[in-house]
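ok so I'm stuck.
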Amino acid sequence: MDPTTNTPAQPAPTRASWLERRRRWFEPATVILMALTTICTTWCSYESSRWSGRSSGFQNHTNELLRRSLALGVESNQVETMHATIFMSMMNAKLSGNQKLADFYAARITGELKPAYEKWLALKPFENTAAPPHPFVPGFYVPRFTTDIQQLNDQAAMAQTQANTSGRNASNYLSNTVLLAAVLFFAGTASKFDQPHVRLGSFAFASLFFLYAVVRMFLLTVA
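replied:
not stuck anymore, here's the structure
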């Protein structure tokens, strides 16, 4: 009894009751943290999967463009080889005095070789020693599919850049899931410790990791 108020004295709070009150907020806070972490992990996994799919799509498109460019390059080389063969055969026939054979080959100068050959003849190469030795020099002969090959290579470079960017985004989201997994580990094990300061330290560590992962998640690009 309290002699001044004639009321029963309240018992002094014990360490056990203090720990019990702390546990009342600690366990719900841990559950909420783990639930939010699970939701964020699901979102990051979903975004990582989407960005990985985009990266694979852009990479496949890059490979397709490069294959088309390579095929055109091979065909262009074959055409240039054929033109060089016709030109050399015509020159050999002309220099050997077989004009009829030279005319035969000259009539078959077509395609990219024809404008180059006409430019070369305009310089009077048989009299002008300063003229190029053949019409296949730059500025005269333009290989077939040059523009198409350049466009395909440019498109392939752009697609490769997009593939790399998408791959980095997928990796960033994946690394965020690793951070969130650490949050789940520390939050899940926090309640297992007997010592209060160890329990609170584990929970605080999980909370800091969670805040960092959430801020990082909001800074990433959404697919």
